[in-house]
Amino acid sequence: MTLSLAVSPCPNDTFVFHALIHGLVPGAPAVDLTFADVDVTNTAAETGEFDLVKVSYAALPWLLDKYDLLPCGGALGRGCGPLVLAREQRANLAGATVAVPGDRTTAYLLMRLWSAENPPAKIEVVPFHQIMPGVAAGKFDAGLVIHEARFTYQRYGLTALADLGEWWESDTGLPIPLGAILARKGTVDPAQAAEWIRDSLRQGWLDPAASQDFILANAQEMEPAVVKQHIELYVNEFTLNLGEDGLAAADALLGRAAAAGLTPAVPSLIQAGRA
Fold this sequence. Notes:
This protein is of the alpha/beta class. It is built from twelve helices and eleven strands.
């Protein structure tokens, strides 16, 4: 068996999956790796293209008929939310053209919930690396960014209009559910896959130097100091085990989205996990 795996080239994913990708997890199959941005994997997962795949929590309503949510390996935490950036301070996004990295990302769903009373006039989906330069150049009035951008946006002369993670945490008291790992039903045993991923993660924590070259080679020109910050922020206790707090966060996000008519309704993930 060869396991098809799609994750992003971001440092948190390459750190978590390094041992699995390189055949260092006992009993795990060989891996056929695809690197892709989450907007690409959200779409590819709809056709069941990969055995294991990293997607946005916001995309789950369209995917849970084909995939099982794994309790580990993803990106969920506190103080790690998306940012809404602009060249200068403004009261809200009313009338604005906003660049976003994908229309089924958790970041975009959070922005829609946050800006519901003053929604932007236009949304443009663009590659992530074009967002901050585009806002700085005046191509967009604002931009929605994730991951390492929270460490680097000041270099573009931009200001943060909102930290959507802070907004979410203050409103719900829950961590922010960003990226999930899914296993294709009928192809991968979810309990077995979870053990492979946890073994890979534990190896990363025990010997961080072993994965460093692989991480830096795929970090899209990120500086080593930013890579370190990125991993420390996004690889945490929820990466090892979502637990009830993690599942409650996902339920809250998807429940609010469904109530607002933004996504289809899905059954409770907490109740499904207890079944």
